[in-house]
């Protein structure tokens, strides 16, 4: 029975962490089936900007998190501009805010991923141990570059993914559900998030937010290979968020426990850090959550 309760709690925390993506998909659905006084993509851009402002005003996201999310918006928009030009996918319909075939609202689909990570970080009281920022960042940059370069040279996503698994082999993410503390390998979390993003992409294409070439005449399931691409893209979003979280307790929120720890920063072995992080780096609202760790 307790396992079912924990699963329901976990599901609820996931839902509320996905508040921005849920609102985004609601906007996609409404804009598809309801006649609007302006072009659909223009309305979606105004809607997403309003959502971002609302999240900041009501305190769902801090200005640092909004800045990180905006950075991922720009990263995604750059990728969209290239992919549309080479014919990987297209955006049907016209809009004033459409540049080189890409509506400016498109970056918010990537920003939604960043919003989810920021929300989940807080709601699950995430802690990351043995994080290696330099090699992880280098691989994230290579992942982004490969999305462009594989159109001219061999696709390196599999070697890069394997290298990422090696770099993150000792990196764990700790999270709380109720009074219990859990952990999983960070690389596994990337895979799980990537899978659900692939499902979300199917809904997005079904709502005609964009179309792959084989979906122009009739909707088809997005190729399962895109699941791997999303898992890799999640690592890029994580690096952006972790770069800010790693400064927590030093440049801001001074005196609070660090939520991203590296072996170099703590001068302990990774295994010792993994053990300590569950006992010493719990946020106050969870009290003795580690006493119930499983």
UniProtKB/TrEMBL annotation:
The keyword Protein biosynthesis does not apply. InterPro entries: DUF817. Keywords: Membrane, Transmembrane, Transmembrane helix. The keyword rRNA-binding does not apply. The chain crosses the membrane at residues 12-31, 43-60, 67-87, 99-118, 130-150, 156-175, 187-207, 227-244. This is DUF817 domain-containing protein. It comes from Kribbella pittospori.
């Amino acid at each position: 029975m307790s396992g079912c309760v924990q699963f329901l709690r976990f599901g609820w925390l996931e839902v509320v962490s996905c508040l921005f993506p849920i609102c985004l998909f609601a906007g996609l659905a409404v804009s598809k089936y309801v006649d609007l006084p302006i072009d659909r993509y223009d309305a979606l851009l105004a809607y997403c900007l309003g959502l971002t402002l609302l999240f900041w005003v009501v305190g769902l996201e801090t200005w640092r998190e909004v800045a990180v999310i905006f950075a991922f918006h720009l990263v995604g928009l750059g990728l969209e501009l290239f992919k549309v030009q080479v014919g990987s996918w297209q955006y049907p319909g016209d809009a004033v805010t459409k540049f080189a075939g890409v509506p400016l609202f498109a970056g918010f689909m990537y920003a939604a991923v960043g919003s989810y990570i920021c929300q989940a970080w807080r709601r699950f009281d995430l802690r990351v141990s043995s994080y290696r920022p330099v090699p992880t960042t280098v691989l994230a940059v290579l992942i982004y570059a490969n999305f462009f370069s594989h159109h001219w040279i061999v696709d390196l996503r599999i070697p890069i993914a394997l290298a990422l698994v090696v770099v993150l082999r000792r990196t764990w993410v700790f999270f709380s559900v109720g009074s219990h503390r859990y952990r999983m390998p960070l690389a596994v979390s990337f895979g799980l998030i990537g899978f659900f993003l692939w499902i979300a992409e199917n809904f997005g294409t079904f709502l005609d937010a964009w179309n792959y070439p084989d979906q122009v005449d009739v909707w088809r399931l997005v190729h399962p290979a895109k699941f791997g691409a999303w898992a890799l893209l999640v690592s890029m979003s994580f690096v952006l968020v972790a770069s800010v979280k790693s400064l927590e307790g030093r440049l801001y929120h001074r005196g609070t426990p660090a939520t991203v720890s590296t072996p170099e920063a703590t001068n302990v072995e990774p295994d010792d850090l993994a053990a300590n992080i569950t006992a010493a780096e719990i946020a106050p609202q969870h009290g003795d959550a580690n006493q119930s760790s499983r």
